[in-house]
Amino acid sequence: QVQLVESGGGLVQAGESLSLSCATSGDIVSIMRMGWFRQAPGKPRELVAEFTSGGTTNYADSVKGRFTISRGSAKNTVFLQMNSLQPDDTAVYFCHVLSFSYKNYWGKGTLVTVSS
User: Fold this and answer.
1) Concatenated DSSP letters for the chain?
2) pLDDT tens track, the chain, 116 positions
3) Other CB atoms closer than 10 Å to residue 78's CB: what's the count?
């Protein structure tokens, strides 16, 4: 059974930083994309940052220059360093994997709250 487990969310003030981690376990045959989405109250889930199978990264325009995605040496972990957090970054952050068989895997999410 595939599991994605996030950690690192919490409550911070505007301008502060947080780091999120995601560890995967189970049998994911091949990872095509791995990264982070978020969902704010009343809004659709949106891509934050991800790695592609070619090793490139995609970032939402709203987080470019503030957030950095990275992967662990074992390739089954992914991190999101979030700097200069703003109240608009408040959301539940989900770890996501898309396999080459086009299966989507999601973590349960971790809440990030940024106060002004």
Assistant:
1) --EEEEE--EEEETT--EEEEEEEES----EEEEEEEEE-TTS--EEEEEEETTS-EEE-GGGTTTEEEEE-TTSSEEEEEE-S--GGG-EEEEEEEEETT--EEE---EEEEEE-
2) 788 999 999 999 999 999 999 998 887 668 899 999 999 999 999 999 999 988 899 999 999 999 999 998 877 899 999 999 999 999 999 999 998 889 999 999 999 999 99
3) 26
The rounded distance, in Å, linking the Cα atoms of 116 and 103 is 38
Sequence-distant (6+) residues with CB within 8 A of 20 are 6, 7, 8, 9, 36, 79, 80, 82, 93, 95, 110, 112
Residue 21 CA: distances (Å) to CA of 1, 40, 41, 74: 20, 19, 22, 13
CA–CA distance, 9 with 49 (Å, rounded to integer)? 16
